[in-house]
Amino acid sequence: MAQELQENALHQNAPAREVAGAEIDTKAATKAGRAAAAARAVERDPRWQKVVARDRAADGDFVYAVRTTGVYCRPSCAARPAKPENVAFFAGPAEAEAAGFRACRRCTPNAASLAEQHAATVEKACRAIETAEAMPSLKALAGSVGMSPYHFHRVFKAVTGLTPKAYATAHRDSRAKEQLARAGSVTEAIYDAGFHSSGRFYATSNAVLGMTPTAYRAGGVDTEIRFALAQCSLGAILVAASDRGICAITLGDDPETLARELQDRFPNANLIGGDAEFEALVARVVGFVEAPQLGLDLPLDVRGTAFQQRVWQALRAIPAGETASYRDIAERIGAPTAMRAVAGACAANAIAVAIPCHRVVRNDGALSGYRWGVERKRALLEKEAQA
Ligand SMILES: [Zn+2]
Fold first, then answer.
1. DSSP character for 83?
2. H/E element holding 228?
3. Mean pLDDT within 73-86
4. Rounded-to-integer distance, Cα 297 and Cα 77, Å
5. Among 188, 22, 147, CA closest to 138
6. Neighbour-count burial for 99-114, b at 16+ CB within 10 Å, e otherwise
7. Which of 368, 232, 348 is nearest to 292 (CA)?
8. Which of 47, 248, 264, 275 is deepest in the core (most CB within 10 A)?
9. What distance in Å separates the CA atoms of residue 244 and residue 325, rounded to the nearest whole number?
């Protein structure tokens, strides 16, 4: 009975050739016995179950080769299932090839994994964006890496966390800022950074600097906010930023209180501690707080009602070294009777110094209150008056 099964197995697997004579039959039977043993060994191997299941998660962990075809495959290969007795496992493509197998054309087990391919594709697109004179269209970018615009957009966002357009804008802005900081002429910097008219630069930079109202998002739902604490001459300082820009600069005596207040203000946001890159940004903010007259060339994420945003915009128009009264601001925003509301908007400002609510004083010129302490307000105004 066993003999018969082995014979059947043999006849199924044997290459098409004449099998005749008792001697050959015996040899063949031995061979069939070895095949059955090999099949059992493969079937006991946990990797075989992954091949049978075409388990995508196992891709990259190992490859399997099929002796009858000379081909090796990823575990997930959609090719016709092999007989276990013909299968051998290898750690990777190099080992399989060293044993004389060649890569399957269907599952290309020797090609980079999908994740690696995506990373390489996005890398290529980033270089294309960085070196282009003008922002290439999504269609052109996708075409240059052989993807559909939709798929490319998704892959790019998944790898970088940004859309291609946001990446291009961020790259252009950072170039503009670098060049402005090195300060040749402003116009030169604008052209070097790839803006085609200075008018467009100023229009864009208003948006980048947060003076175009951003939608008010209650509690920061679905927002990621990075933050870090530092010390400056005014005491503890907390700097927080969303992907749109700086959304909080707060001052106080106790860093823990500042962190708690941030949490209270953005109860639904995902708050993340700052990394090295963010620490560098905090250093720039601290430098700015120490010398506000130098200006802060970082985008702000201004969150507030339309009225608050109008007030804050008017505050940003007060030059360092000058002050304005609540009445002045109310008049400047075209709401001369709204002095109390102006005072409320100043008190609600969460971006200290960059939105200079410290430059607002009482109508008689006396220092009024300051969200972060009247002593800090005095220190800031004195510093600005001296500069
Ligand atoms: Zn394959």
1. P
2. strand 224-232
3. 88
4. 53
5. 147
6. eebebbeebebbeeee
7. 232
8. 248
9. 30
pLDDT attached to residue 92: 87
CA 47 to ligand 1 center in whole angstroms: 15
CA 157 to ligand 1 center in whole angstroms: 30
357 is catalytic: yes
Residues in the chain: 387
Tokens of 252: 């106080």
Residue 346 annotated among the catalytic residues of the structure: no
Q: Rounded distance, CA 268 to CA 255, Å? A: 21
Catalytic residue, candidates 73, 107, 247, 346: 73
Q: Is the dihedral of CA 204, 206, 208, 214 positive or negative?
A: negative
Q: CA 45, CA 89: separation in Å to the nearest integer?
A: 9
Give the tens place of pLDDT for each residue, 237-294. 888 988 878 889 999 988 888 888 888 777 777 777 777 778 778 888 888 888 887 7
Q: Residues 362-365: contacts with CB within 8 Å, 24+ apart?
A: 362/325, 362/326, 363/325, 363/326, 363/327, 365/323, 365/325
Alpha carbons 96 and 64: distance in angstroms, whole number? 8
- How far from each other are the two terminal CA atoms of the chain, in whole angstroms? 103
Both tokens of residue 293? 């007259």
Question: What percent of the chain has a predicted confidence (pLDDT) above 70?
Answer: 77
Ligand 1 centre and the CA of 313: distance in Å?
A: 62
Tens-place pLDDT, residues 40-62: 999 999 999 999 998 887 887 89
DSSP string, 265-296: HSTTSEEEE--HHHHHHHHHHHHHHH-GGG--
Q: Is 237 exposed, middle or buried (0-12, 13-18, 19+ CB in 10 A)?
A: buried
